[in-house]
Structure formats: C-alpha cells, structure tokens
Amino acid sequence: MQVFHNKSKVIITCNKRLSPYLQEEVKALGYTIERAFATGVELNITVTECIKLNLNLRCASQILYSIKNFKANTPDDLYKEIKAIEWEELIDFSGYFSVTSNVDNPNITTPLFANLKVKDAIVDRLKEKKGIRPNSGSDVNKAVVHLYWKDAEANVFIDTSGETLAKHGYRKIPGKAPMLEALAAGVIYATNWDKKSPFINPMCGSGTLAIEAALIATNRAPGLYRMNYAFMHILGYNEEVFFAERRILKEQVIKNIELKIVASDLSEDAVEVTRRNAKTAGVDGLIEFEVCDFELTPVPEDGKGAVVFNPEYGERLGVHSKLELTYKRMGDFMKTKCKGYSGYIFTGNPDLAKKIGLKAAKKIEFYNGKLDCRLLEYELYDGSRRIAKTED
Question: What Pfam families does its record include (predicted)?
Fold first, then answer.
C-alpha cells in the first residue's frame, strides 16, 4: 500500500462554518477541491501531498486519507473488512497506534465499541502476519486510524494529522475562555483585513486574535511550531519531505515588516499571557501590549484598519446589566475613536448585540464550540459620510 505515492480520497475536516475559509487556503496552496461541504473539503491526493497541507493550513482540524470503502451492517462485518486490510504495510507492528471514529449505526450504542472492533481487527492481523502484538491506546501522537461509519456505509482512513491542526502549537498558556486558533484565523480572514494597516484587538484575553493576525501578516505557518504529525508514523514515511517543507515555511516568512498590532486588556494577567504566547510564536516584537480599559486602547489616527472585539457573551437569557453597558460602551468607542476603521464584534449573544447601538453592515456566521455566534461588521465612516445607523 504505497499511500505516500498513490492518490486516494482525502477529507480535510474543519469546525462548522470554517469551510469557506479552509477552501480558500487549500486553493491558495495549489490544490484542486473535488467537493466542499459544511465541515470540510474532499481532494484526490497522496499522503506525501498531505504533508504540505498539514504544515500550512490554519483553519483545518484533521487530514484523512482513505484506504478502504465498504459495506458493514454489524460489528462482525466491520471486523472482517478491517482485518482484510494489509496493515502490516502501514503500521509498524512493534509500534503504537490509536483509533478514532465518527459512527452513526443502529447496531452500535457507543463509538468506543466500534473503535475496539477496529483495534482488535488490526491487532489480530498484525499478530498473524508478524507474530508480535502492537501497542494501542487513546493517545493520537503516533499512527492514527479513523473510522467513518454511517448506517451500512463505512470508510477507513489514515489520519495524517494526529493531534488536531486547529491548535497551532504556540499557545502554551491558554488563558481564560480562549478562542481556538483555527476559529481566530477564520475570523481574521472574514474581516478581509489587508495585513498592512493597523489591527486593534481590545479586550484581547489570551491574545489569540492578535497573535494570529501577526502570524498571517508575516506568513508564519502553523507547521513552524510543531514537530510531530501522525503521517510520520506510517510505514514508508520519508522525513526529508517533511524537512524540505519546513525549510520552505522558514523561507516564506516575511521579515522586516512595518505593522501595527495592538492587544489591550484590563487584566494584567491576560496581557502577560498574551505577551508570553506571542513570544513563543516569535511575533511579540510586532504587537503593542497595553494594560487598560478598552476605551483607552491606542488607535492610530490614519483612519484605516480593523478593530476586532471578542467580548464575553454572558447568558443568552437574562442578560447581565453590566454586560449590556459594556456592549454599549464598545459601540461608543468604535463611533468616537475608530472613525475610518472597519469594526468587528464577535459574540454569541444576539440580545447583547442590540445594545451596541450601531447597525451591522454584515452578520457573518460562526460557531464557537457548539455556540451559534456572529461576527458583526460595522462601517465606521469618517468625515462627510454618516458614522452608522442605530440598530433597529
């Protein structure tokens, strides 16, 4: 099974509503998308080609290479089909592997049982062929097999990523209620920020938005911060391909860039977390860190750029009066201090959004975990044009 050289169906997954931004990333890397759907895209490529994608994609979660598609009604059917696969050509029999799954089958009450059937089939096959039992468990830091099983349709994949790609590796200190890095990248893409004008991030929390903005502007790919992927633990892996791709990542970093990114927060601890995470990412020199109320955040007066808030959402029902005031103050801040900028507020609370006092030009849909959210865009006109209409 020459998976590093033979093309097969590859599914790149992402969180809901990140698919449009993932599609643009994949196309920008020169790949042809066979199919796009709500939680990912489908390509027809080799595992070797998956290496470049793993290192470059910001909005992806997993990159799955299909090795077998089949019908299975029962767990015994599943076991039989899995055992027939030539695992001795894919997994080091003296190594370690794990199994993940997405299962919707009437004969399975828990995905863990399906995972166990897959694991048993692989172990039994390798014991018969090699006489040694490989180790297996829940850690996804070595070889990873993924099962997709819906009704009678089953597909077995090699997960080339392992640990999710949605985490970009630089955030050693998460901070309070952090935004996932893949989501932050998607939000920045949605703003259409030009990567040259100021990027202002008041109420920065752990700094993910500000740091991702710096990474995107300087073309620093997530692969610069990670040295282990599941594709490295598949038989036939050539480490020189990986290191060649990493050299490209290093060469494409934009240095000596003039960029104004401001990250502010009332919490001194939050700003320190942001500073330390930015240092790990190598972009601390590009960010101005401020401990202050968001209304005191310094905003360059050249009248162009992006101001992005990710405030607390509060409870959807029974909105706290304190947060109502905060949202009103955010609207006032953008009206008075950010003229000429594009303003954005990311929130999962539509009731609080009404307190902003501005008419959103766009309401871009996202999910934060399972919470339905919106990125609200405000055109903050300067000079003769009206600043904005009030929210209806």
Answer: RlmL_1st, THUMP, UPF0020
User: Among 191, 175, 165, 146, which residue's Cα sits nearest to residue 21?
Assistant: 191
Confidence bin at 292 (pLDDT 50/70/90): very high
- Continuous H helices in 133-227: 181-191, 208-217
Max CA distance (Å), the chain: 80
Residue 250 CA to its chain's centroid (Å): 21
CA nearest to 74, candidates 42, 14, 117: 117
Mean pLDDT of the residues in the chain: 93
CATH of domain 8-159: 3.30.2130.30
What CATH number should be reported for the domain whose range is 181-220+255-380?
Answer: 3.40.50.150
Contact 40, 11 (CB under 8 A): yes
Domain residue spans in the chain? 8-159, 181-220+255-380
How far apart CA 337 and CA 243 sit, in angstroms, is 46
Q: What is the pLDDT of residue 378?
A: 97
Q: How many CA atoms lie within 13 A of 190 on its CB side?
A: 27
pLDDT digits (tens, 9 = 90+) for 23-67: 999 999 999 999 999 999 999 999 999 999 999 999 999 999 999
